[in-house]
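TL;DR need structure tokens for one chain.
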Amino acid sequence: MCTKSIGRATTFALVMALAAGPAAARSADETPPDTLCTVIGTAARYIGTTVTVRGVASSAGKVTTLSDAECKGSVSLSIDDSDTRKRDITSFKRAVASNGAQATATVSGRFRSTDDAKSPYAIDVYSVRDVVNVQ
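>> reply
TL;DR here they are.
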């Protein structure tokens, strides 16, 4: 009798562990974005790391920036030409291609400092998601 109860408890625990595994894996893929204000405000902590931030992207000529109105901060977005084969980056570039066009987007990439006084930080873009045209 006791052996049967232990067997059932063990089976139940295994089933629960297997069921929880995929749910935990799904939530790990969807990293919640940091605010751009937080990343810029504590930039030294983030330099050289991969960040995921949400903001308003816009372009002026060949320069694309991601900004946040709450802290009036912005970073340059560096998109490698070899990444233009990725669908998410291609559609993002199209969304902000013309001067004055804006789109909200969640951007993931390596955060780094630049030598530019106007834009001291940049993100080397790895991926873009949740792009919504503003203008």
